[in-house]
Amino acid sequence: MNIEAVIERVLQSIRPTDEERAFVEALMKELRTIAEEKINELGLDVKPYFVGSLAKDTYLAGDHDVDLFLAFPLETPLEELREKGLELGEAIAEKLDSYEIAYAEHPYVRAKYRGVSVDLVPCYDVKDWRDVRTAVDRSILHTRWVNGNLKGRNDEVRLLKRFLKGINAYGSEIYVRGFSGYLAEILIIKYGSFLEVLEKADFMLRQKVIDPAGWLRREPEVAMKTVRRETKEDRPLIVIDPVDPRRNVSANLSWERYGIFYFKAHQFLENPSEEFFFGKTGTKGSYLAELRRKGTHLVTLMFPKPDLVDDILLPQLERSAKGFERALSREGFRVLSWDVGHRSGKAFVMLEVDRRERERVTIKPGPEFFTERGWDFYRKNEKVWIIGKRLYAEKRVKENIIDVILELLEKDQVALGKNVREDIKSGEILLDYVPKELEEDAYLFLSREKWNLKG
């Protein structure tokens, strides 16, 4: 199938239908009416703005999350914005189906209405980058800029977003570190089309700095400060925010995720397929066969998933995996790779290790023999000898990796994420076995298919 035919087939499944558009427009109209009624009832000087992909018409079919921002005047003190913003958000949400309080830089309301997630977020009514007070304020400016510059290329954004989702490089969250939706929109506006962005994968990396709004010319001092800062941080891309010269839109983009995009863009252009947009289906394999093939071993720490959002949970699991890697290395075990995640209500840390047992004794170096510490070492150990000036002894140690891990946890000798420390300590430790719900995760991890650039 040629590239145009693939793109047309993909567009048919990701472009919202007329019925879907009518639903979204009616939903936004209802929410605006409810918001305006509650603003008037509470006597507030607040303007409701829709932001995000629905407001820009860059949303994918079936993805209808609503972001309704409640913009307060610039002179409003921050504490008052937080207090009144939460009060207003709750008042609006009372008219919806259900809601809960969520927390970012300041509290906001996350609600459900007609099967759709609705975020009600207080912010400042900013007109310019100099007005920005909180992290969310720019969203209003982002929506205006995209709507003013996209010029009918909405479907090109949809293609790029779906491609990035399909190759697992979409989302700027800390546990993904991929391309944000806003970054995808900027790249389409800058380069013109989905295919142009893919063709520029190598060029973007070499050019490094992308400045769609010309800040390096208009505000050279501020923009150059951003470029120098982000260059020092060794970012794969520096995309100066079209609405704020102080910000790199791609600051969260990792080298790994850009690398995936880089290779997959080349592969798609050479051999176009719908699979790039929707991922492989039915990836099957045996994790036990992988262990036999490689001669390695799998340690899985598993426990009930804590009530934490992924933004908090996954970085904590990653920190814990790195802690195990360091601690086991000190104990003579080599961690070849690790993976973390959650599935079916269980959180997990998987470690691929070189062996399940180690030598029963280890050689323990001691101090110089003619010191007070030397006499102490001599008295405490059974077999002691001298090499040069130093004493050495044999130390009997636990052999099995499970026993070693239990001892490390008991002695607090593993750097664990603070929010999951107690969960890990009281969880299960499995060796060369996982329950059925984790079999696919174990296979993808051990086979490296999870990260395979050629897959």
Automatic annotation (TrEMBL):
Keyword RNA-binding belongs to the record: yes
Positions bound to ATP: 53, 56, 142, 161, 170
Binding-site positions, Mg(2+): 65, 67, 119
Catalytic activity: a tRNA with a 3' CCA end + 2 CTP + ATP = a tRNA with a 3' CCACCA end + 3 diphosphate; a tRNA precursor + 2 CTP + ATP = a tRNA with a 3' CCA end + 3 diphosphate
Keywords: ATP-binding, Magnesium, Metal-binding, Nucleotide-binding, Nucleotidyltransferase, RNA repair, RNA-binding, Transferase, tRNA processing
List of residues binding CTP: 53, 56, 142, 161, 170
Its EC number(s): 2.7.7.72
Pfam hit, one: tRNA_NucTransf2
GO molecular function, one term: magnesium ion binding
Polymerase nucleotidyl transferase domain span: 36-142
Needed co-factor(s): Mg(2+)
Domain annotation tRNA nucleotidyltransferase substrate binding: ranges: 155-278
GO biological process, one term: tRNA 3'-terminal CCA addition
CCA-adding enzyme C-terminal domain: residues covered: 294-430
Gene3D superfamilies to which the protein is assigned, alphabetical: Archaeal tRNA CCA-adding enzyme catalytic domain (3.30.70.1550), Beta Polymerase, domain 2 (3.30.460.10), CCA tRNA nucleotidyltransferase, domain 2 (1.10.1410.30), Poly(A) polymerase predicted RNA binding domain (3.30.70.590)
InterPro entries: CAA_C, CCA-adding_arc, CCA_tRNA_nucleotrans_2, NT_2-5OAS_ClassI-CCAase, NT_sf, NuclTrfase_I-like_C, Polymerase_NTP_transf_dom, tRNA_NucTransf2
Annotated function: Catalyzes the addition and repair of the essential 3'-terminal CCA sequence in tRNAs without using a nucleic acid template. Adds these three nucleotides in the order of C, C, and A to the tRNA nucleotide-73, using CTP and ATP as substrates and producing inorganic pyrophosphate. tRNA 3'-terminal CCA addition is required both for tRNA processing and repair. Also involved in tRNA surveillance by mediating tandem CCA addition to generate a CCACCA at the 3' terminus of unstable tRNAs. While stable tRNAs receive only 3'-terminal CCA, unstable tRNAs are marked with CCACCA and rapidly degraded.
NCBIfam families assigned: cca_archaeal
PANTHER family: CCA-ADDING ENZYME (PTHR39643:SF1)
Additional record remark: A single active site specifically recognizes both ATP and CTP and is responsible for their addition.
HAMAP family: CCA_arch
Complex and partners: Homodimer.
Family: Belongs to the tRNA nucleotidyltransferase/poly(A) polymerase family. Archaeal CCA-adding enzyme subfamily.
Name recorded for this polypeptide: CCA-adding enzyme
Organism of derivation: Thermococcus guaymasensis DSM 11113
